[in-house]
Amino acid sequence: MREIVHIQAGQCGNQIGAKFWEVISNEHGIDATGAFQGECGDLQLERINVYYSEASGGKYVPRAVLVDLEPGTMDSVRGGPFGQLFRPDNFSFGQSGAGNNWAKGHYTEGAELVDSVLDIVRKEAEACDCLQGFQLTHSLGGGTGSGMGTLLISKIREEFPDRIMNTFSIVPSPKVSDTVVEPYNATLSVHQLIENTDETYCIDNEALYDICFRTLKLTTPTYSDLNHLVSAAMSGVTTCLRFPGQLNADLRKLAVNMVPFPRLHFFMTGFAPLTSRGAQQYRALTVPELTQQMFDAKNMMAACDPRHGRYLTVAAIFRGRMSMKEVDEQMMNTQTKNSSYFVEWIPNNVK
């Protein structure tokens, strides 16, 4: 089966990664101990090997590698609801922390830890039948996620040059900023991401806060609300890898449809349906309604307005019982009605 090895680096990466595993474990019917409890076994287990390996006693273990330069976040992941799911050998952490310093993560502290992490990655890769690629969750504003995350990417690139490298990168934004050096860390990281990854999903906290305020009508959103949004989007964009579907069934096919030039591989994620708790019953979940929401600037997880530029390519992923014909027609409509927002030199660029 076409497996994916998941790596999470730094505090942000580990928090989001832990939430991602919670969400997809629920979708695949796997409980906190790794046992399968699902109702519709065939569907949930058909492509379970993509993200999980089966251990003795029929337990499912995530193909995840957890990395940080300080032990704190690891402990909270381990103590979290699905902490017992992960293989204990796959936790790799330092003691000193990177202090929000990209160079510490990339050249000093991170470089000391990177070999032991690569050993774990190698072990996971060797346990696969036919590895299709890696995915990394990290933030670009801190030290470990950005500095050590990009170091890991380039080292993995050296060792597995023909495998797809996919990242979920939380980019800093001016309005929501924790540390003063975020722009530096992000600039240094983006340079690495341009060269060494195949697909990067850009998500930023400002857009997530906006979604929480405007769309979900939360008055005081917490980081766990933001993580929930990110994990919902991650679960959505990986659906076609984890369940049988029509299109984009692996990372490479997604890249073929989405990346027109090798360096232009930064994706903006839109997610629908997003509605506040009270308004749910007043909205119909039809294909046109979902499509309209999905393309809405308010539902984008990156704080940039798509109306100010043009789309090069679009991949729309619908989940559940859908009429393929209806979806195709809707995509056609979207493209013909808004043709000025799509570049004319890539025909049929909505998949």
TrEMBL record:
Q: Name one Pfam family in it.
A: Tubulin_C
Q: Where in the cell is it found?
A: Cytoplasm, Cytoskeleton
**Molecular function (GO) terms listed?**
GTP binding; GTPase activity; metal ion binding; structural constituent of cytoskeleton
Which keywords, in A-to-Z order, does the entry hold?
Cytoplasm, Cytoskeleton, GTP-binding, Magnesium, Metal-binding, Microtubule, Nucleotide-binding
Q: Does the keyword Metal-binding apply?
A: yes
Which CDD domains does the UniProt record give? Answer: beta_tubulin
Q: Which Gene3D superfamilies match?
A: Tubulin/FtsZ, C-terminal domain, Tubulin/FtsZ, GTPase domain
Q: Name one GO cellular component term.
A: microtubule
Where is this chain primarily localised?
cytoplasm
Residue ranges constituting the Tubulin/FtsZ 2-layer sandwich domain according to the UniProt record: 247-351
Q: Which cofactor does it need?
A: Mg(2+)
Per the database record, which ranges form the Tubulin/FtsZ GTPase domain?
A: 48-245
Domain of life of the native organism? Eukaryota
What are the recorded Gene Ontology BP terms? Answer: microtubule-based process
Subunit details: Dimer of alpha and beta chains. A typical microtubule is a hollow water-filled tube with an outer diameter of 25 nm and an inner diameter of 15 nM. Alpha-beta heterodimers associate head-to-tail to form protofilaments running lengthwise along the microtubule wall with the beta-tubulin subunit facing the microtubule plus end conferring a structural polarity. Microtubules usually have 13 protofilaments but different protofilament numbers can be found in some organisms and specialized cells.
Q: Which family does it belong to?
A: Belongs to the tubulin family.
Q: Its function?
A: Tubulin is the major constituent of microtubules, a cylinder consisting of laterally associated linear protofilaments composed of alpha- and beta-tubulin heterodimers. Microtubules grow by the addition of GTP-tubulin dimers to the microtubule end, where a stabilizing cap forms. Below the cap, tubulin dimers are in GDP-bound state, owing to GTPase activity of alpha-tubulin.
According to UniProt, the name of this protein is: Tubulin beta chain
What is the originating organism of this protein?
A: Anopheles minimus
